[in-house]
Specification:
Blueprint (H helix, E strand, L loop, with lengths): L1 E2 L14 E4 L2 E5 L4 E11 L3 E11 L5 E11 L9 E11 L4 E5 L2 E5 L2 E6 L2 E2 L3
Antiparallel strand pairs: 1-2, 2-4, 3-4, 4-5, 5-6, 6-7, 7-8, 7-9, 9-10, 10-11
Length: about 120
């Protein structure tokens, strides 16, 4: 699937094209929810997310990802290296552009590698 988001009134930059691939996609019209399963990959130009399953809410654009979650992202306008995250679950909020990762989290930013277990950073 490819989505070409529409620029919203007041936005200074055009939104990035979003691409999604999966082995299976199921849309529930009553709940306005899409469930993607099997080697799911979601990308939008500045970030890529891989997971076994991703569920998106059509009304809000919010999503949850489960199973072997991997994410690679960089902030728009940032010239630094991207951040890479490994987790078992992720929750993404579209409007706030926030993501929360859960379950044996590991991340890498440049040469720094860290881990977090049960919601606490290692060493805390």
């Amino acid at each position: 699937m490819t989505e070409l988001p529409v620029k919203k009134l007041g936005d200074s930059a055009a939104p990035a094209e979003e691409r999604v691939t999966a082995e299976r996609a199921v849309y529930d019209g009553e709940l306005e929810r899409t469930t993607l399963t099997g080697n799911v990959q979601v990308s939008n130009g500045t970030s890529v997310l891989w997971a076994d399953r991703v569920v998106t809410e059509q009304q809000t654009g919010d999503a949850t990802a489960d199973g072997s979650v991997k994410a690679s992202f960089s902030q728009v306008g940032s010239e630094g290296e991207p951040v890479h995250v490994l987790a078992s679950r992720a929750e993404m909020k579209h409007d706030s552009q926030m993501a929360k990762f859960y379950g044996g989290i590991e991340w890498q930013a440049g040469a720094v590698v860290a881990g977090c277990f049960a919601g606490r950073r290692s060493g805390d």
